[in-house]
C-alpha cells in the first residue's frame, strides 16, 4: 500500500495531517466536493480548484451506468476525462444501491439491481466495484459495503456489518496496488458501540490505507451521530486517515473534527446552491427571501469568491426570482468556497494551537444568524 499519510499536529482528538497521492497532496482536515457524474454540478473543474479544493469525490454507481467505466478508461481515466489533475476518491456504489431498496436483490455474492436510468439489470460485487474503480483511476478506492438505514435493530445491523466485513476482505483481495493509490475500509455498526468495535478490529486485521466511518448521516440526527463519533474514531488506527462519509453541515464538520475525523464529503454545498441557500459564517441565508430584494451588500463581506467580490444580494435575489442559471453557478461557487475557507481555518488553527478559540468563535457566529439591517 503506497498512500503516504502523516499526522503533523494534534489538539485533543483533532488532527492536522497530510495525505500524499500520485495526483498531489491533500491537507487534512479536508472537505471533498461531490462530483457525482464526473462533474461538480454547476461548476467547471477549474472553478472547483480555485475554491481551494484539493480532492474530489466521484460516484461509482452513476459512472458505471453513464457513460460506463470502460469508456472512462478508454478516455484516459476520470482525471483526464473531466480535466481534474488533483486526487479523486470514488465511493463503492454501496450507498446508492441501498437507496434502491425496491429495485435490488442482495445476497452474499453481491447485489443485483435495476438502473434508475433505463431499468437495465446490473450486478455489483466487491470484485466488480474494485474493477470499476480501477478503470476510473481513482486515487482512493472505497471497499464495497452495505449501509443500513437507521434506526435499525442490533440484530439487523450486526448481520449487515458482518457481511460488509467479509466484503471488505474480498475488496482488499481484488484491489490492485500501485504507487500513489490506496484503498479505504469502511467501519459499520450503526449506533451500537460493540458492533463498531468488532468492525474496526476486523478492518485493522485486513489492513487498509485509510478508514472510513460509514453508516451515519442516514437519519439518526446530529446528537446521535456525535455520540457515535465520541468513540468510533478512537477505534481506528492513529497513523491512517479517518473519513466520515456523507457529512455534512458546517457544524457537523466542526464537531467531527473535534472528535478526530480527517476527511469529509457531502452534496450539501452544491445542492444548497441549487435551492437558493448560501452558507456563511453567520449561518445559512435563503437568498430568495424578500428582505434581500434591495440589499446592496455582498452575501459575506469576508468572502473572496466571485459572488461576494462582484455582486450584491439584490442581484442574486433577482437572478433567483428569474430562475437564471447564473444564480446557481455563483451560489454553488460561494458555498464550496465557504467550506474550503472553513477547512483552511481549522487547519490554520491546528497549526497555531488555537483550535479551541476558533471553534468557540465558529459556534458564536453561527448562533448569531444573518444581520438583517444595512
The counted number of beta strands is 17
What is the CATH superfamily classification of the largest domain?
A: Queuine tRNA-ribosyltransferase-like
Helix content: 40-55%
Shape: globular
> How would you state the average pLDDT, rounded?
95
- Radius of gyration, in angstroms, nearest whole number: 20 Å
Specify the CATH architecture of the largest domain. Alpha-Beta Barrel
Unreliable residue runs: none
The number of helical runs is 15
Question: Within the largest sheet, what's the order of strands?
Answer: 4-15-14-13-12-11-7-6-5
Oligomer: single chain
Beta-strand portion reads 15-25%
CATH topology description of the largest domain: TIM Barrel
CATH class of the largest domain: Alpha Beta
Overall structural class, as computed from helix and strand content, comes to alpha/beta
Number of domains: 2
The termini sit apart by 56 Å
Describe the main β-sheet briefly: 9 strands, parallel
Describe what this molecule looks like in 3D.
This protein is an alpha/beta fold and 374 residues long. It folds into 2 domains: 263 residues, TIM Barrel; 92 residues, no CATH class. The protein contains 15 helices and 17 strands. The strands form 4 sheets. The protein has a 9-stranded parallel β-sheet. A hairpin with a 2-residue loop joins strand 2 and strand 3. Helix 6 packs across helix 7, helix 7 packs parallel to helix 8 and helix 13 crosses helix 14. The chain is globular. It starts with a strand and ends in a 6-residue tail after the last helix. The model has no long low-confidence stretch (mean pLDDT 95).
Amino acid at each position: 500500500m503506497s498512500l503516504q499519510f502523516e499526522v503533523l499536529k494534534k489538539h485533543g482528538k483533532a488532527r492536522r495531517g497530510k495525505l500524499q497521492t500520485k495526483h498531489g497532496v491533500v491537507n487534512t482536515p479536508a472537505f471533498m466536493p461531490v462530483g457525482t457524474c464526473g462533474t461538480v454540478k454547476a461548476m467547471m473543474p477549474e472553478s472547483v480548484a480555485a475554491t481551494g479544493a484539493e480532492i474530489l469525490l466521484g460516484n461509482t454507481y452513476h459512472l458505471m451506468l453513464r457513460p460506463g467505466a470502460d469508456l472512462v478508461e478508454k478516455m484516459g481515466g476520470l482525471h483526464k476525462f473531466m480535466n481534474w489533475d488533483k486526487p479523486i476518491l470514488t465511493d463503492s456504489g454501496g450507498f446508492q444501491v441501498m437507496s434502491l431498496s425496491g429495485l435490488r436483490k442482495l445476497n452474499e455474492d453481491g447485489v443485483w439491481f435495476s438502473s434508475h436510468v433505463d431499468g437495465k439489470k446490473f450486478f455489483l460485487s466487491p470484485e466488480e466495484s474494485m474493477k470499476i474503480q480501477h478503470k476510473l483511476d481513482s486515487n482512493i478506492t472505497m471497499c464495497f459495503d452495505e449501509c443500513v438505514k437507521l434506526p435499525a435493530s442490533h440484530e439487523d445491523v450486526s448481520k449487515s456489518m458482518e457481511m460488509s466485513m467479509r466484503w471488505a476482505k474480498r475488496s482488499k483481495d481484488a484491489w490492485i496496488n500501485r504507487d500513489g493509490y490506496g484503498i479505504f475500509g469502511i467501519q459499520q455498526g450503526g449506533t451500537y458501540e460493540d458492533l463498531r468495535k468488532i468492525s474496526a478490529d476486523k478492518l485493522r486485521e485486513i489492513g487498509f490505507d485509510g478508514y472510513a466511518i460509514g453508516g451515519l448521516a442516514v437519519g439518526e440526527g446530529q446528537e446521535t451521530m456525535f455520540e457515535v463519533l465520541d468513540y468510533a474514531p478512537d477505534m481506528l488506527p492513529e497513523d491512517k486517515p479517518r473519513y466520515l462519509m456523507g457529512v455534512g453541515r458546517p457544524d457537523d464538520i466542526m464537531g467531527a473534527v473535534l472528535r478526530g475525523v480527517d476527511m469529509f464529503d457531502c452534496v450539501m454545498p452544491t445542492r444548497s446552491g441549487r435551492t437558493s441557500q448560501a452558507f456563511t459564517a453567520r449561518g445559512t441565508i435563503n437568498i430568495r427571501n424578500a428582505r434581500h430584494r434591495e440589499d446592496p451588500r455582498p452575501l459575506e463581506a469576508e468572502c473572496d469568491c466571485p459572488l461576494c467580490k462582484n455582486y450584491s444580494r439584490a442581484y442574486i435575489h433577482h437572478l433567483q426570482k428569474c430562475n437564471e442559471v447564473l444564480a446557481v453557478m455563483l451560489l454553488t461557487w460561494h458555498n464550496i468556497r465557504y467550506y474550503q475557507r472553513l477547512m483552511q481555518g481549522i487547519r490554520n488553527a491546528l497549526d497555531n494551537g488555537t483550535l479551541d478559540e476558533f471553534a468557540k468563535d465558529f459556534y458564536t457566529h453561527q448562533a448569531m444568524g444573518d444581520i438583517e439591517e444595512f
